[in-house]
Specification:
The chain is mostly helical. The chain contains nine helices and no strands. The chain has helices at about 5-25, 30-35, 40-45, 55-65, 75-130, 135-140, 145-155, 160-170, 175-185.
Length: about 190
């Protein structure tokens, strides 16, 4: 049972009547028909203009006491609006997730292309600065070019001391290349 009018005070009664009227989507005229309180009195009560009788308070309290919760038109509208907002939010989050995945894939592709560019730039440097033409490469049938590739990979992984690696692999024929590699300055982005 709800509190009596005297316990909750008139302002609390007004607030509760207004909240319930809004919740179920009633106009002043609709509430007037349900309670027997005139339309003008209801409007005045909600505006806080002047006093109203104990009889009005009792009718409004009786209406509140007799109310069982049932969804009103505004409740259904709120449900629909909330569902729409949730659906829109879910779509935005899915698009954000997909965009993040695309950006990560693009970043990986950029890194792969940078690596390829680094390899091509080094090969161009070898041809122009060192004078190593394809014919020169053909002379190295002892695995030293493979060793050079391994040295680049080891350097990128933080193991630039190629001489030790060559010794551990038993590739002594490429010792000269390893010594030359180890005396070169490290690439600017090496660890």
């Amino acid at each position: 049972m709800t509190e009596t009018v005297k316990e909750m005070g008139r302002s609390e009664l007004v607030r509760r009547v207004y909240d319930e009227r809004m919740r179920v989507g009633l106009s002043h005229r609709d509430l007037s028909k349900l309670t027997g309180v005139s339309f003008s009195t209801l409007a005045r009560v909600e505006r806080g203009d002047g006093e109203y009788s104990d009889e009005t308070s009792e009718k409004l309290e009786a209406w509140l006491d007799g109310r069982e919760w049932e969804p009103g038109p505004l409740d259904e509208t709120k449900k629909i609006a909330t569902a729409a907002a949730v659906a829109i939010y879910d779509q935005i989050m899915a698009m954000h997730s997909a965009q993040s995945a695309r950006l990560e894939a693009q970043d990986a592709e950029i890194e792969r292309l940078r690596g390829a560019c680094d390899v091509m730039a080094e090969r161009e440097r070898q041809k122009t600065v060192e004078g190593w033409a394809p014919e020169h490469d053909d002379e190295h049938d002892d695995g030293s070019l493979v060793l050079a590739a391994v040295s680049y990979a080891l350097s990128a992984c933080g193991r630039p001391n190629l001489t030790e690696t060559i010794d551990s692999l038993g590739w002594t024929s490429a010792q000269k290349m390893a010594d030359a590699w180890n005396t070169r300055p490290a690439p600017k982005d090496a660890p």
